[in-house]
Fold this protein.
Amino acid sequence: MTIGVCVLFAAALLAYVFAPGVAFERATDKPRLVYLEERKQVIYENLRDLNFDFNAGKYPAEDYESLRNSLEAEAAEVLAEISALQETAQAV
């Protein structure tokens, strides 16, 4: 009896883990603009964290400058793409 319950539980667990999820399928259907807005917020949060960590003495100045420049460049790319998508949407 116990072995049967364990086998049933294991089968249910495997089905749950390896079955494609409905929530995952919905997450991939996001519009590009929504994805970019979320990415922008993540980049801004990373910049705030980087500034905090630098002020706390966790990074040397060279590393801080390098990381900050790469995050700012990524933010600029995201903002440019957001702007282009918004202009395209307004033109239509």
